[in-house]
Automatic annotation (TrEMBL):
It comes from Brucella rhizosphaerae. It is found in: Cell membrane. It is a multi-pass membrane protein. This is Transglycosylase associated family protein. Belongs to the UPF0410 family. Keywords: Cell membrane, Membrane, Transmembrane, Transmembrane helix. GO terms for cellular component: plasma membrane. The chain crosses the membrane at residues 6-25, 32-54, 60-78. The keyword NADP does not apply.
Amino acid sequence: MGEAGVGWIAAIIIGGLAGWIASNFMNSNTGLFMNIILGIIGAAIASFIFGFLGVSFGGWLGYLLAGFIGACILIWVGRAIS
């Protein structure tokens, strides 16, 4: 998270927003806490995947986009497992 220039409190807020957007996009009924978790972990996963592919995002908008994409991936994986 430090690489993107986003602090911990901002990461929680942006992660929650990214998770909420992803849960609405994927028609998933998750609560606030799970939205935050999905957004933060999703951003970390998406940043890793995009970094591996040579794509990088920066700042608040990049973290939000990475969180959204990663949270969608996590929701999809969760549905595939259950």
